[in-house]
Amino acid sequence: MRFRRNLQRLGEIFAYEISKTMNYQTTDIKTPLGVAPVETLVQQPVLATILRAGLPLQQGLLNIFDRAENAFISAYRKYDEAGEFHIEFEYLATPLLDGKDVILSDPMLASGASMEVGYQALLKKGNPKHVHLVVIIASAQGVEYVTKHITADNVTLWIGAVDSEMTSMSYIVPGLGDAGDLAFGAKIDSH
């Protein structure tokens, strides 16, 4: 539970920082004693995450962007008999993304392949104004992969920390471990 809550806290911090890049308008808010001009977002972002590990991070983002629409992507590592993996994409639920800011979150950026798959899946649902990719810990190789394969000018990569090492199985060292398992419990079948 503590790990999950800490992921939420990090989501709140990222949301605060990302909010500084967004467009605002002055809106008059009525209080019991009068009217006050307040800066509000011109448009709420769409919060997207890769299931299941990304759920606590997305909840933290949602705690700040509490009127945001949500999108969910199912992507996971599928291993073959030789121990090699590819990213399996199974599911996408999202609103129309045309002209919207999208925040795509996944706690760990190891190889970078799942982030690329998630990003490409979102583009099938519209043409976002800007995409913010949010990760807590990334490998240096994952950052290099993402910056090489996601080259659009309207994409910003937000990273909490970069670890320099990644194992031959594409696990970040020291990393965190499996963020989904730490937040929700171990899986019976890891594909």
UniProtKB/TrEMBL annotation:
Give the coiled coil ranges.
Answer: none
Alphabetized InterPro entries for the sequence: PRTase-like, PRTase_dom, PyrR_bifunctional
* Glycosyltransferase listed as a keyword: yes
Q: Which UniProt keywords apply?
A: Glycosyltransferase, Transferase
Q: Enumerate the Gene3D superfamilies for this protein.
A: 3.40.50.2020
In this chain the Phosphoribosyltransferase domain maps to 2-185
The GO molecular function terms of this record are: glycosyltransferase activity
Query: CDD domains per the record?
Result: PRTases_typeI
Q: Which Pfam families match?
A: UPRTase
Q: Which NCBIfam families match?
A: PRK00129.1
Q: What name has this protein been given in UniProt?
A: Uracil phosphoribosyltransferase
What organism does the UniProt record list as the source? Aquipluma nitroreducens
